[in-house]
Amino acid sequence: MVKLNINPLVIGLWGLFFLLITSFPLNVSAETERLVDQAQLLSEEDKAYLLEQIEATHSETEADVVVLTTRDANGLSAREYADDYYDQHDFSEDGFLFLIDMDNRQIYLSTSGKMIRYLTDERINQTLDKAAAYLPNENYREAIDTVLTDAVIYYRRGLPNQQGNQVIQDGNSFLRIFIPAVIGVISAGAVYLAIKKEYDLKKPTYHYPYQQYGTLQLISEKDTLVRSYITTRHIPKNPPSSGSSTHTSSGGHTHGGGGRSF
Prior knowledge:
The chain is of the alpha/beta class. The chain has a domain at 35-160 and 251-261: Diaminopimelate Epimerase, Chain A, domain 1 (Roll), CATH 3.10.310. 46% of the residues lie in helices and 13% in strands. The protein contains 8 helices and 6 strands. It has helices at residues 8-32, 44-61, 78-88, 115-118, 121-132, 140-157, 171-199, 210-213; strands at 35-37, 64-70, 95-101, 106-112, 247-248, 254-261. It has a 6-stranded mixed sheet, with helices on both faces. Helix 3 (78-88) links the parallel strand 2 (64-70) and strand 3 (95-101). The protein is elongated. The chain crosses the membrane at residues 174-195.
C-alpha cells in the first residue's frame, strides 16, 4: 500500500482558494442585482417581464436601472433608503433607482449622475403621478413598468432647455473679460476729467443782492379729486422649472429625485 504524504498547508490553501472561487460570483450578483423584491410584491412572471424591461432601459440610457421593494426601511425615510441602497451597492455613477416602500407607504425615484439632468423634477412628478395610480389596486408591475417606460421616453427627448446649470469659466475666459473692462474704465475716466476741466467755471466774484430785489408771493392751491380709475390685469404664473433639485445622501453622494405617498 502506497502512503501519500500531503502537506496540511497545501490542503488549507486549496480549500481557501475553492471557497473564494465559489463565493465571489454570488457576492457580485448580490451587489449588482437590478431587481430586488424584498417585500415580495411580484410574481415570478412579473419579475421575468420586468427584468427584460430593466435591461432594455439600461441599454437605451446607458445607465444603471434598479428596482427595489421593501417592507422595512430600517427607520429611514423613503428617500434615505433609496439613496443609501444605490450608494452602498456596486452601481455606476449614472443611473436611477425606483423604490416601493411599504414601510413608509411611499414610492420614490432616486437619480444619480447624468440621470439627474434627464429626469428633472417636472418629469419625475409626471411619472410618479402615473405610477401612483396603479398602487391602490396593488398593480405593482404596471407602476414599475410606467417608470421604466417614461425614463426611456425622457432620455430620447434629451435634456430640457433652461436647466439652470452652473457654468464654470476657466482663467483665460476671466482675463478676456477683465482686461478690456479695466481699459474701458480708464478710458472713460480720462475723457470725463478732460471734459470737466474744459467746462469748469472760474470762482464767482459777483454777489446778487437778493435782499434788495428778491420778492416772495404765496398763492393758495387746492387739489380736487374729480374721478378715479382702477385698472386690473392678469399676471401669468411662472412656468414650471425645467431643472432638477439635488441633495446629498448620507454617503456624501449627490442625488436628485422625488416621491409620492400611497
